[in-house]
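Notebook, bench 3.
Goal today: get a predicted structure for Transmembrane protein from Entamoeba dispar so we can plan the truncation constructs. The sequence was checked against the plasmid map this morning, with no discrepancies at the termini. Length recorded as 259 residues. Pasting the sequence as submitted so the record is complete.
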Amino acid sequence: MKVQIAELIYQFSIKKVHDIITLCVGITFFLFSLHVTVFHVQYNSLPHVQSLTTIVTCSFLQAIIIILSSLIQILHSTHNIPTSMPFHYFMLFVRMLISLTNSIILIVSLHQFNKINDSSHHLSLIESQYSCCGWFSINTMTCKSLAAIRADRTCSSTIGVSFHNVLSIALVLNVIEIIVSLSHSFISYISHRFMIQQDEETENPDDIISNYLTINQTDINEETTFLNNFSDEQLHTNRLLSSYNTTESDNDNDNSNLI
């Protein structure tokens, strides 16, 4: 059953399609971080909630890792370059670790945001209390905008709804990335096992002939060595026998002379 699944994956190039999907996820993370940077970071004015700059940083880091990982896999598949499986699994592990960590932070942030919402009962109260026209300085905890010149440092906006949407979208993207990473690791493992099994079952005829000739040549060399050693021993034995016979003959001659 596993072999059939692996053959299906290999025939329809599901791994290549999955690499393209991974690349799209990385591009989505990059566009999301760019969108938050341009349209939302200047409205980072809700305390006790994860700052948007942290979301942007994590999303941008994830985008770089995912895009590089998917591009490496696509290039290797296109040019039939063997992939280092330990490196591949290490990249998947790093991706899942970052996504899990960021997901936990986002869940905590959403929980804290909902607690503020529950305490104020109305989102408009949160906006009037925490929002400002422009951007909010985290270091000085002051509103850096033209509105600070006036007594009213707040402005009518949808910052609360916008901030909540950013957190929700970031959480959804991280969950998708975790699912994609898990499925990618499963597909890579099955494909790798199938390729190993296929290589073992389908050997190159030239390799078979070469191995056969090598084994036969080794046997011939061993037999030749044995025969040479045997010949040397036989020659040494013959020399000893010849020397012994010569000695015996000399002794016989001496005895006959004495008689």
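The radius of gyration is 40 Å. The CA atoms of residues 246 and 252 lie 10 Å apart.
Flagging this for group meeting.
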